[in-house]
Design goal:
The protein has 2 domains: about 375 residues, Kinesin motor domain (Kinesin, 3-Layer(aba) Sandwich); about 60 residues. It has about 475 residues and is of the alpha+beta class. It starts with 9 loop residues before the first strand and ends with a helix. About 35% of the residues lie in helices and about 25% in strands. The longest helix has about 40 residues. Strands 3, 7, 8, 9, 10, 11, 12, 13, 16, 17, 18 and 20 form a 12-stranded mixed sheet that branches. The chain is built from 11 helices and 20 strands. It holds the Pfam family Kinesin. InterPro entries: Kinesin_motor_CS, Kinesin_motor_dom, Kinesin_motor_dom_sf, P-loop_NTPase.
Length: about 475
């Protein structure tokens, strides 16, 4: 992987238009960016089971400065050459007690968030869909990385990426609203994929129904919105306390169990979904305040169930069935990654044309996040112990392959709102320069007239939209009668 060409972000924007361009705003193409999936790897400390075995010589060597990982085969009979394999990633996090190969101190939860959490928040407020998913064998530290030791520990050092992302979202929302003209709403959904069925973890249960009873939903596909979960409940959240409350409700009914490899093994794939929507307000020359839709974004935070070898986890009965479904869905995810990587590297000459998204509920839900309209990050978690060599090597190969996937993400923004914002920015810049007499006043006046026209168009469109929604509701009521 180290010989690969440098991965660059290709930014494709519409050609800048002259202020007097009379083309329709609806024809303006949204800003798009094409870039590869960003992949990070984290090695966790030894757990109690591994410490009892006595051999604490790590098979994993990391160099934080070069973002490389080297894994050594502990079995002399299987060694060929020097017995090591080297991988290149975007970020690596060494969380053992001693410094890594470059002398860098062990990575903390804060370090992980700074590298992969902050960019996700920036993308969300820029109107891009985004996704972060954690992959690794059972007991490798995925849930700890995503959620933390205790999700209710809001300000603690052990807080995971998910609560830290939510805290940063609310902080930036406050900053945005203090600057004026922009208001953001945040909604949260929480689902799990258990035995190839999608369950809403925060759905409202009917009276008399046990809280632990599943509310199963179907995954559908919309021609423009892409894959979505029909009937999923989203709850507006205004603070981190609201987020923690919903996650705790979901965690109370999420499927977990104790195995020989993990005292609290996730038996399902869990997805926290955050929906951000912006409303922009502006005041016309007449003093009228109008509101238009601004940017919007969706963020998926995915805690995948760990792959496991039944011979090691020693599960049976229902847990054996769960492990089978987990491994099958992860196998499908691996096939999707392989095909997308092959299609990206061979530029249309690949033998594959469409990955098997629909063969698993997990890959169907994450269709946009893999090869679609999303800024996607992956964090792979591994064990340093020699007893987990095969799983660690498999995880690193899996993660390395994901780096070849290319997504094309586009800004989700109403075309009229985008054009109004662009005109406002141009006008503000012109007004700043007016004092020096370096700008034509007629040009600024022309911009102001166009802005007024756009504001009027936006308000009319909003009225038509409201009227259409009322008519739709009336039609539905009449059909029921």
């Amino acid at each position: 992987m180290s010989k690969n060409k440098a991965r660059k972000t290709e930014v494709m924007e519409p050609e800048p238009r002259a202020p007097d361009d009379s083309a329709s705003v609806a024809d303006d193409a949204p800003k798009t960016e094409s870039e590869s999936v960003k992949v990070a790897v984290r090695v966790r400390p030894y757990n109690d089971r591994e410490r009892k075995k006595g051999n604490l010589l790590s098979i994993v060597e990391m160099n934080t400065k070069s973002s490389t990982v080297k894994v050594s085969n502990p079995n002399p009979k299987e060694i060929s050459g020097d017995g090591t394999k080297k991988f290149q990633f975007d970020n690596v996090f060494w969380s053992l007690d001693t410094p890594d190969a470059s002398g860098t101190a062990p990575a903390t939860q804060r370090d992980v968030f700074a590298s992969i959490g902050l960019p996700l928040v920036t993308h969300a407020f820029s109107g891009f869909n985004s996704c972060l998913f954690a992959y690794g064998q059972t007991g490798s530290g995925k849930t700890y990385t995503m959620m933390g030791a205790d999700v209710s520990s809001l300000g603690g050092e052990d807080a995971g990426v998910t609560p830290r992302i939510c805290l940063e979202i609310f902080h930036r929302r406050q900053q945005s609203e203090e600057q004026g003209h922009s208001k953001w709403t945040v909604e949260l959904g929480y689902v799990e994929v258990y035995n190839e069925r999608v369950s809403d973890l925060i759905a409202k249960r009917k009276k008399g129904v046990k809280p632990s009873d599943e509310v199963y939903l179907e995954v559908r596909e919309h021609p423009t919105r892409g894959a979505f979960i029909e009937g999923q409940r989203f709850v507006e959240v205004k603070s981190l306390d609201d987020v923690v409350k919903q996650i705790e409700i979901g965690n109370a009914v999420r499927h977990t169990a104790a195995t020989k490899m993990n005292d609290r093994s996730s038996r399902s794939h869990a997805i926290v979904m955050l929906m951000l929507r912006e409303e922009r307000t502006m005041t016309t020359k007449t003093g009228e305040t109008i509101t238009t839709a601004g940017m919007s974004s969706r963020m998926n935070l995915v805690d995948l169930a760990g792959s496991e070898r039944v011979s090691q986890s020693q599960v049976e009965g229902q847990q054996f069935k769960e492990a089978t479904h987990i491994n099958l869905s992860l196998t499908t995810l691996g096939r999707v990654i392989d095909m997308l990587a092959d299609m990206a590297k061979k530029s249309g000459k690949s033998q594959w044309s469409t990955p098997p998204y629909r063969e698993s509920k997990l890959t169907f839900i994450l269709k946009d996040s893999l090869g679609g309209n999303s800024k996607t990050f992956m964090i792979a978690t591994v064990s340093p112990s020699e007893v987990n060599y095969d799983e660690t090597l498999s995880t690193l190969r899996y993660a390395s392959r994901a780096r070849d996937i290319v997504n094309v993400a586009q800004v989700n923004e109403d075309p009229r709102a985008r054009r109004i914002r662009e005109l406002e920015e141009q006008m503000n810049e012109m007004r700043k320069n007016l004092g020096g007499g370096s700008v034509d006043n007629a040009y600024v006046k022309d911009l102001e007239e166009k802005l007024a026209l756009m504001q009027s168009e936006a308000q009319n469109a909003r009225r038509i939209c409201r009227r259409s929604r009322r008519n739709d509701k009336r039609t539905k009521l009449e059909s029921k009668c």
